[in-house]
Design goal:
alpha/beta, 10 helices
Length: 413
């Protein structure tokens, strides 16, 4: 269904030869825009229309960059959709500029603060949660059941605790625990468990026979799990079945909840914040609505001294040359290139193409290919310098804008 509302389109950059329909319901054929351009066919909401006549092979430009080339002639006022666009080659990583356009620092924002939970290690949480980590996929269902019990029966007695969270995952059983790649999921799970919102009171549920034992997941130097009052519930240590296992988890959780309930919010500077940026349900309007708004907020946070983690390695490959140019140093840019090179090799080894990234929902929402998606995605990163790049699962320690690589997609929320 099309709308009878005033026809509206968005053209992002002066060099763009396409615009995006923003009228709810799309526009029918024959619609005349304020510019005098008349649509020669119906164009759905969030999809692109040609602002000029395009010959076969002509560049299709949005965000001021070439997002593809016309596979046939496209008349002015026509629908420019995925089937008419051949994506360009990805930028050559070897040619990416290295810190050639590092942005100048904005004046700092002083006096910004929030009410957070200060932890003994100096980190600050924004929530007060009990985290229950798991060492192996075999215990996930039991832990999730126990969490429902804890929320219903125990949590109401501890009003200062916001929630109970189960950190489950499909890992840990008969894995090649010494393989080089195994360090990535283990490191990721460990650092999830050490999230500041858990206040250092994390508990661990283990099956008992798995390769990923609690002492490997949580070394004593990072989080003591074998202290006098145990923080580990081993399911195979029980003899009376499921009921006893759940009762043990609930009892251990209550001890942790009692300590978490003593936490109180205190006024903390905004520089203590560590914010992660993520996407969801991208369409052709994300890059001109939500993502720039997030990017503006990211700039404010950086100016206040906070850390902003920008991720989505799989989406920004086609914007690599733009991000390396704004790196703080050539070495930061090289770190970024190394992560992109890992992704290229991952695709090559799997016989996949980078343009497989946009989902059916992305395309229904007007995104033609990964290039267009990348240009909208990087708007979340704001305009400040890229200060560091972390490998998958690593804990971010640098202030400012940081690229946090996320190759462990099975751990994404």
């Amino acid at each position: 269904m099309t709308s009878s509302a005033e026809p509206r389109t968005i053209r992002v950059h002066d060099d763009d030869n396409v615009a995006v329909v923003v009228t709810e319901g799309g526009l029918p054929a024959g619609t005349r825009l304020d510019s005098g351009l008349e649509l020669v066919e119906a164009i759905p909401e969030a999809h692109k229309l040609a602002l000029v006549d395009l010959a076969e092979g002509d560049a299709i430009v949005r965000y001021g960059v070439t997002i593809g080339h016309a596979t046939r002639a496209i008349a002015c006022g026509s629908w420019v959709h995925e089937g008419l666009i051949a994506p360009p080659q990805a930028p050559d990583l070897a040619d990416c500029p290295l810190a050639t356009m590092t942005p100048k620092s904005f004046p700092p924002l002083e006096g910004s603060a929030f009410e957070g939970y200060r932890n003994p290690d100096g980190s600050v949480g924004t929530k007060n949660l009990l985290g229950i980590s798991t060492t192996v996929q075999c215990v996930a269902a039991t832990v999730e059941y126990a969490v429902k019990r804890i929320r219903a029966e125990i949590l109401p007695r501890y009003p200062n605790v916001d929630d109970v969270v189960a950190i489950t995952h499909p890992y840990g059983c008969g894995v090649a625990i010494e393989a080089p790649g195994a360090a990535v999921p283990i490191r990721t799970l460990r650092n999830l468990a050490l999230h500041p919102n858990f206040g250092g009171e994390l508990m661990v549920v283990s099956l008992g026979c798995e390769k990923l034992q609690p002492v490997r997941l949580m070394p004593a130097s990072a989080l003591p799990v074998l202290e006098e009052e145990p923080s580990v519930a081993v399911m195979q240590d029980t003899r009376d079945g499921f009921g006893e296992i759940v009762a043990n988890i609930v009892a251990l959780a209550e001890k942790k909840l009692a300590r978490l309930n003593e936490r109180r919010r205190t006024t903390c500077p905004a520089s203590d914040l560590v914010i992660g940026l993520q996407c969801g349900g991208s369409d052709a309007l994300s890059g001109v609505t939500a993502n720039p708004a997030v990017g503006f907020a990211a700039d404010l946070l950086v100016r206040a001294g906070a850390t902003v983690m920008f991720s989505e390695v799989t989406e920004v490959r086609d914007a690599a040359h733009l991000l390396t140019a704004r790196a703080a140093t050539p070495e930061v840019a090289r770190d970024f290139v190394r992560q992109m090179a890992w992704y290229d090799e991952y695709l090559r080894a799997g016989g996949a193409n980078r343009d497989a990234n946009p989902t059916p929902g992305n395309k229904k929402g007007g995104l033609a290919n990964i290039v267009e998606k990348a240009m909208g995605s990087i708007a979340k990163a704001g305009t400040t310098a890229l200060m560091a790049v972390t490998a998958p699962g690593e804990r971010v320690t640098r202030k400012g804008l940081v690229l946090s690589a996320e190759h462990c997609n099975w751990l994404r929320e």
